[in-house]
Design goal:
alpha/beta; seven-stranded parallel sheet; 44% helix; binds nicotinamide-adenine-dinucleotide; binds 2'deoxy-thymidine-5'-diphospho-alpha-D-glucose
């Protein structure tokens, strides 16, 4: 693959993907990102002098801009990470989730369809549109239920999950109706370097380091299936190269943990790496009012990806979490810059009334 257009490549997973794409010379990379509160060009600073990396600030919903970029760079693939991604924000104000995740994906699909139809037969054959989605589209599991497979019916519960489900359906329809060579990946919870500290793991690490309360929603027994972000990026690249057109692939870490256990494990790592005399960071754990409609459990069955494409994650939860805490400890400049006024406003809005 010579050239790829990545959307949302200044966010957490997209930036990890773009960095890998350039470090490992996967392809010339164009990064289209609107730079919302979650987009951060500081993460990509090391690519400043790279002639095969191009950043464009813009909206995936701007079909004119996307059409211009497709004509100019003639990519063999589009990887769509761009989204509003935080469930709590989708509960507080869902509008942007519909605009970007649904309407934005629709406009991106339209521009991609016209571009793809203009290509030569061989280039049409080679082209791929990979849509990055989430396990949240499948809804919530009880403790004894089997993990989500690609056949699990969609049952999204939050505005975020519903907007991602709508986008997945549009991607499916564009393959079925127009023949656009699409691929969809549905992944479980990611963690690792460069994650915006509104999400559970980076929020807990940074609050623990600062001696602030560690907020746990409800009883702390909601379960998530955790995957180190680089393993997710490798899986996406593998699906891009070898996935069967029109198919969906589940990606997961097979690392189910209750939230309380996640937070306690982070506290143990911080106790070791940044000890304070006669102090256990777990004493900061604070149970607060639950998230409305909080899904109880997610778990991914990624048998298809492993069997058909030979994917294996490199990190387990313990090694990945240790690396992640070390990363946040050694990147205080990045952390200080993302925790601006807008970040403080969100923390105040989400936690003060609970
Ligand atoms: P993020 O919130 O960290 O980053 C999203 C990026 O998209 C930001 O850089 C933002 O500026 C950009 N963006 C937002 N709206 C845009 C628009 N209209 N046009 C162009 N750019 C726009 O998100 P993330 O955690 O990196 O997630 C990336 C993708 O992976 C999302 O589609 C998300 O649904 C999916 N996903 C995330 C996880 C996870 O655990 N974080 C798990 C599975 C799937
Ligand atoms: O499952 C994949 C999804 O994982 C992605 O699609 C989303 O983009 C991503 O944000 C993530 O969603 P979650 O809602 O699971 O992630 P979050 O980090 O917000 O929360 C993880 C769990 O921790 C969840 O059960 C809610 C809980 N939680 C979260 C926060 C922020 C707390 O108990 N306290 C908190 O302060």
């Amino acid at each position: 693959m010579e050239t790829i257009l990545v959307t949302g490549g200044a966010g957490f997973i997209g930036a990890n993907f773009v960095l890998k794409a350039r470090q490992q010379k996967w392809a010339e990379t164009i990064n289209l990102d609107k730079l919302t509160y979650a987009g951060n060009l500081q993460t990509l600073a090391e690519l400043g002098g790279d002639p095969d990396y191009h950043f464009v600030q813009g909206d995936i919903g701007n079909a004119e801009l996307v059409t211009y970029l497709l004509k100019k760079y003639q990519p063999q693939a589009i990887v769509n990470f761009a989204a509003e991604s935080h469930v709590d924000r989708s509960i507080a104000s869902p509008d942007e989730f519909i605009q970007t995740n649904v309407v934005g994906t629709f406009q991106l699909l339209e521009a991609s369809r016209f571009y793809w139809q203009s290509l030569s037969p061989q280039k049409r054959e080679e082209f791929r549109f990979l849509h990055v989605s989430t396990d949240e589209v499948y809804g919530s599991l009880d403790s004894a239920d089997p993990a989500f497979t690609e056949q699990t019916p969609y049952a999204p519960n939050s505005p975020y999950a519903a907007s991602k489900a709508a986008a997945d359906h549009l991607v499916r329809a564009y393959h079925h109706t127009y023949g656009l060579p699409t691929l969809t990946t549905n992944c479980s919870n990611n963690y690792g370097p460069y994650q915006f500290p509104e999400k559970l793991i980076p929020l807990t690490i940074l609050n623990a380091l600062e001696g602030k309360p560690l907020p746990i929603y409800g009883d702390g027994q909601n379960v998530r299936d955790w995957l180190y972000v680089e393993d997710h990026c490798d899986a996406i690249y593998l699906v891009l190269l070898q996935g069967q057109v029109g198919q969906t692939y589940n990606i997961g870490g097979e690392s189910e943990r209750a939230n309380l256990e996640v937070v306690e494990t982070i506290c143990e790592i911080v106790d070791r790496l940044a000890p304070k005399p006669n102090f256990r960071h777990s004493s900061l754990i604070t149970f607060i009012k639950d998230r409305p409609g909080h899904d109880r459990r997610y778990a991914i069955n990624c048998h298809k990806l492993k069997q058909e494409l030979g994917w294996q994650p490199k990190e387990n939860f313990q090694t990945g979490l240790q690396k992640t805490v070390e990363w946040y400890l050694s990147h205080s400049e990045w952390v200080d810059r993302v925790r601006t006024g807008a970040y403080k406003d969100w923390i105040e809005q989400n936690y003060s009334g609970r």
